[in-house]
Hints:
The complex is a heterodimer. By secondary structure, chain A is mostly beta strands. Chain A is about 0% helix and about 50% strand. Chain A has strands spanning about 5, 10-15, 20-25, 30-35, 45-50, 55, 65-70, 75-80, 85-95, 105, 110-114. In chain A, strands 2, 4, 5, 6, 9, 10 and 11 form a seven-stranded mixed beta sheet that branches. In chain A, strands 1-3-8-7 form a four-stranded antiparallel beta sheet, with no helix packed on it. In chain A, a hairpin with a 6-residue loop joins β5 and β6 (about 55). The model of chain A has no long low-confidence stretch (mean pLDDT about 95). By secondary structure, chain B is mostly beta strands. Chain B has strands at about 5, 10-15, 20-25, 30-40, 45-50, 55-60, 60-65, 70-75, 85-90, 95-100, 100-105. In chain B, the strands form two sheets. In chain B, strands 2, 4, 5, 9, 10 and 11 form a six-stranded mixed beta sheet that branches. Chain B has a five-stranded antiparallel beta sheet with strand order 1-3-8-7-6, with no helix packed on it. Chain B starts with a strand and ends with a strand. The model of chain B has no long low-confidence stretch (mean pLDDT about 95). At the A-B interface, β10 of A face β5, β9 and β10 of B.
Amino acid sequence: NAGVTQTPKFQVLKTGQSMTLQCAQDMNHNSMYWYRQDPGMGLRLIYYSASEGTTDKGEVPNGYNVSRLNKREFSLRLESAAPSQTSVYFCASSEAIDSWDIQYFGAGTRLSVL
Amino acid sequence: EDQVTQSPEALRLQEGESSSLNCSYTVSGLRGLFWYRQDPGKGPEFLFTLYSAGEEKEKERLKATLTKKESFLHITAPKPEDSATYLCAARGAQKLVFGQGTRLTINP
């Protein structure tokens, strides 16, 4: 049982380049989330999807877009990467939006923007 | 504004030396207080959920407690494998807010 799978694990971009971070879960969860984690700061929510077909902004959505491709997959896109987007990105899922508590996380994508 | 603060930022203990990690929160309409463990290079792993003041939960050498303003993660007779970053998060009416974490190191 893989849980939450994120690809790629590492990525280096130049300023202005675009890329998509992929996330897939095999737990039949309804809700999915994208966070970023920076040194000295807690996990910050970028976007979330309460259910298939819906997406909403979190705390730090600027510079990002998301797509809930189907129930399993939730992707995060950086259209024009900036050095401020250098971070570790985590995807998470939960059974439903009301059970935000038990969120299952992927291993993360470490992104550097030069 | 909802806020979660963890202390200390880092803690070094000797194997067997018990201690506690603190999580202070200001969240309107608390709907749950959560503890996660995060190992280097990995995503957070769920440990506990606490819903009301006075509640306690235990798992092996860890015990989490909750008051109206704080939560504590007590570690009894820790082992080197307990070394990790411990994250606290509080769920308010609309969102889950994470603290910055406490990096715990247990020396053999």
